[in-house]
């Protein structure tokens, strides 16, 4: 009898609560916000296959002080291979006072502006050739309309041939960071989509990435049959990267 | 004898009918007519706009999905997103009904790992008076887990009930 009573009460309560639930649950409003986010494309790379080489195989060597009038000899050779993410520059059979220039470019091929985060230069110098190698670099930026909008050079001082290839190769890392960022700062600190950063300005014989082998340093003559290798790594990141 | 009883019975009935008629003539009738008009619980989006970090773009459009003449949905499209980039969608949640509305809950579904969302200006339990509104901002942020050249979707749902709902 007692169990029956409790059952009745329980059923009554359930019915009552269900009724209440029905009343309150009946009136609701839903507001929705549907967001679709399409991410952009971050792409910075070398312009593959484009390298202007001033002393390719088969060309006579350039003179240090008068590179417009080459030597009547093809002794040293410069190789320049530009892949999407790697540029390899090789100087072969070169000698004291050899000078060479190359020109290549980086393009922002994405939809997001890029900034230079870091440049790392590493050297392999088993024969002690490094201290005889000098360089000079000219960085220029071209907008999508083909206008040259920024320029920075290293070294600033005038010595030797033009472009200025009298900076010790030890300064290469600093030089690249400085010149690239100086040029970028002239257009807001970032490389926008479809802008190009050139090492050497197109059509300008006096703006390139150049190398020079010094004849003598501290009374020491540059070694023969020597090999010297350096690697430049540039890290580009989206413009808002902290 | 049988006929006598029948006569008495008939007389009593006639008497009762007469008495009843007399009392029935003096009566009052009270009528209560109940008309209940229910109110309307209705909230809508108003004043919708959006803006983004540099180089990102967005559009935000109100949609009337139930055909009741107000916007109950916002469609947001963000382009060229990148990690750390964000878009703010601003809007008002307006009570266009006749009953105070209580925000029962706010939920987010979808690709929330790649696109983080934060709603400010409105929270569960808040009541919006009739005719009143709350200014809100929904911030969509592309996280570092988002891939390049990809599409992600998130849906933020705001549930409203009448103010006295438990």
Short account of what is shown:
The complex is a heterodimer of chains A (242) and B (166). By secondary structure, chain A is α+β, with helices and mostly antiparallel strands. Helix content of chain A is 16%, strand content 38%.
* Chains forming the largest contact: A-B, 26 and 59 residues
Order of helices and strands of chain B: HEEEEEEEEE
Give the CA-CA distance, first to last residue of chain B. 75 Å
Give the strand tally of chain B. 9
Can you tell me the number of structural domains of chain B?
1
Can you list the strand order of the major beta sheet of chain B? 1-4-8-6
Whole-number average pLDDT of chain A? Answer: 85
The major beta sheet of chain A can be summarized as: 8 strands, antiparallel
The chain-level structural class of chain A is alpha+beta
| C-alpha-based Rg of chain B, rounded | 33 Å
The overall pLDDT average of chain B reads: 90
> What letter string, H or E per element, gives the SSE order of chain A?
HEEEEEEEEEEHEEEEE
What is the CA-based Rg of chain A, rounded? 32 Å
Q: How many β-strand runs of chain A?
A: 15
Based on CA inertia axes, which overall geometry of chain B fits? rod-shaped
Give the overall form of chain A.
Answer: elongated
Oligomer kind? heterodimer
Per CATH, which architecture of chain B? Sandwich
Structure description:
The complex is a heterodimer of chains A (242) and B (166). Chain A has 242 residues and is an alpha+beta fold. Chain A has one domain. Helix content of chain A is 16%, strand content 38%. In chain A, strands 2, 3, 6, 8, 9, 10, 11 and 12 form an eight-stranded antiparallel sheet that branches. A two-stranded antiparallel ribbon of chain A has the order 4-5. Chain A has a two-stranded antiparallel sheet with strand order 7-15. Chain A is elongated and about 115 Å long. About 2% of the residues of chain A have low confidence. Helix content of chain B is 14%, strand content 46%. In chain B, the strands form three sheets. Chain B has a four-stranded antiparallel sheet, with no helix packed on it. Chain B has one domain: Immunoglobulin-like (Sandwich). Chain B is built from one helix and nine strands, in the order αβββββββββ. The longest helix of chain B is centred in the first third of the chain and has 24 residues. Chain B is mainly β and 166 residues long.
């Amino acid at each position: 009898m007692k169990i029956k009573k409790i059952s009745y009460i329980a059923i009554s309560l359930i019915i009552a609560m269900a009724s209440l639930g029905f009343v309150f649950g009946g009136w609701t409003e839903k507001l929705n916000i549907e967001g679709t986010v399409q991410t952009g494309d971050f792409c910075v790379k070398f312009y593959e296959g484009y390298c202007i080489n001033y002393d390719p195989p088969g060309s006579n060597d350039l003179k240090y002080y008068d590179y417009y009038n080459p030597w009547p000899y093809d002794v040293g050779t410069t190789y320049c291979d530009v892949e999407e993410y790697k540029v390899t520059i090789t100087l072969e059979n070169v000698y004291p006072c050899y000078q060479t220039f190359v020109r290549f470019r980086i393009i922002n091929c994405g939809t997001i502006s890029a900034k230079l985060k870091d440049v790392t230069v590493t050297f392999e110098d088993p024969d002690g050739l490094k201290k005889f190698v000098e360089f000079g670099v000219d960085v220029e930026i071209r907008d999508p309309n083909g206008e040259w909008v920024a320029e920075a050079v290293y070294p600033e001082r005038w010595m030797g041939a033009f472009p200025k290839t009298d900076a010790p190769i030890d300064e290469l890392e600093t030089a690249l960071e400085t010149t690239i960022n100086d040029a970028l700062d002239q257009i807001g600190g970032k490389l926008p989509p479809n802008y190009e950063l050139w090492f050497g300005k197109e059509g300008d014989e006096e703006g390139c990435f150049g190398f020079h082998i010094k004849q003598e340093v501290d009374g020491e003559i540059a070694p023969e049959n020597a090999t010297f290798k350096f690697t430049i790594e540039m890290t580009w990141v989206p413009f808002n990267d902290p | 004898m049988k006929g006598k009883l029948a006569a008495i019975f008939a007389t009593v009935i006639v008497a009762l009918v007469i008495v009843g008629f007399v009392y029935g003539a003096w009566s009052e009738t009270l009528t209560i007519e109940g008309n209940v008009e229910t109110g309307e619980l209705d909230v809508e989006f108003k004043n919708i706009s959006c803006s983004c970090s540099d180089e990102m773009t967005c559009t935000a459009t109100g949609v009337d999905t139930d055909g009741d003449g107000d916007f109950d949905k916002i469609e947001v499209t963000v382009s060229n997103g990148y990690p750390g980039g964000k878009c703010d969608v601003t809007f008002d949640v307006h009570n266009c009904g006749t009953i105070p509305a209580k925000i029962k809950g706010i939920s987010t579904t979808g690709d929330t790992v790649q696109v983080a969302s934060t709603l400010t200006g409105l929270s569960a339990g808040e009541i919006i008076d009739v005719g009143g509104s709350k200014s809100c901002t929904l911030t969509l942020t592309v996280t570092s887990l988002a891939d390049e050249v990809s599409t992600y979707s998130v849906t933020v749902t705001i549930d409203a009930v009448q103010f006295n709902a438990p």
